């Protein structure tokens, strides 16, 4: 084969190009990624970032991006020293943030008017808010650890159709909060401990929130609460233990097959708009009646 033929054969064997660059099958490795970087392609972090908080730590600015923090940390100057986020996604589709730590920011991770995102296996610690879903929705927030945040561990505001599942939430001021007219969200199979207020809650016009199979313990106030300004909630198969207030305080909700033990007040307090779905159990709570507004059997 002559030189020209060999070159043509080699060119034919290479991947197709887009805009003159070789198309690659996997995410890029970002040795030069810095604080404030704008990310437009799937990226693997290769080092810790220590940021001064004059901008967001990392900004995802394209659809379909996977940002793999790869076990590294994106640090800010402190939860109340900056108005910025460790990782911010605004008005993007199908973005995944995974496998690393964000600490010292106003929000660890923000999905702002984004859709179909995923935050998975991220540690959000010592921020003002851990994970903040602000508008948009259909997100999956799973298997994260959110601790020691000054306000919410995980907050849903104006979010629709999102799933918050299998997260470990500890020692935050507020736990998992669904608010600001969010609708049709599911909070399921999370472990929430040591919250300095309510562990898990729907309020502020939240509609059709499902709380199922969560374990909530050690909250200073109620374990699970749906407020009078929420509607259409379902509270099912949760376990609430050793919370300072009620295990569950419910308004405008259906309450089914929950277990409430050793809480400071009622195991379950059913208020206006509560439907008793049956199968609830309570014991060892501070109020002798154990439950109000729903029937509770012994465990």
UniProtKB/TrEMBL annotation:
Gene3D superfamilies per the record?
A: Single-stranded right-handed beta-helix, Pectin lyase-like
Domain (Right handed beta helix) ranges: 84-216
Secretion signal, residue range per the UniProt entry: 1-23
Task: List where Polar residues composition bias occurs.
Answer: 228-243
**Pathway(s) annotated for this protein in UniProt:** Protein modification; protein ubiquitination
Q: Which InterPro entries does its entry note?
A: Beta_helix, Para_beta_helix_rpt-2, PbH1, Pectin_lyas_fold, Pectin_lyase_fold/virulence, SCF-Subunits/Alg-Epimerases
Keyword terms of this UniProt record: Repeat, Signal, Ubl conjugation pathway
Stated name of the protein: Right handed beta helix domain-containing protein
Q: Which organism is it from?
A: Knoellia flava TL1
